[in-house]
Amino acid sequence: MISTDYAAILERHQLPAPTTITPLTPYTVLLDETILLHLSDGPQPVLSKVALIERQLLGAGIPVAEVLALDTSREYVAGDLLIERVPAGVVAGEIWQSLTRTEQEALSEALGTIIARVHNLAWPGYGDFDPAQKNFGLHGRWIEALVERITALSTALQDGLVLPARLVDGAIIALNDGDSLIETASPPTLIHCALSWDHVRLQQREGGWQIAALMGWSGAIVADEAWELAELWLHRNHLYPDPDCFLGGYRSLHQPQLDRRARRDLYRLLIHLEGALAAHQASDIFRYARHEAALLRLLRK
Question: Is residue 262 exposed (0-12), middle (13-18) or buried (19+ Cβ within 10 Å)?
Answer without folding.
Answer: middle
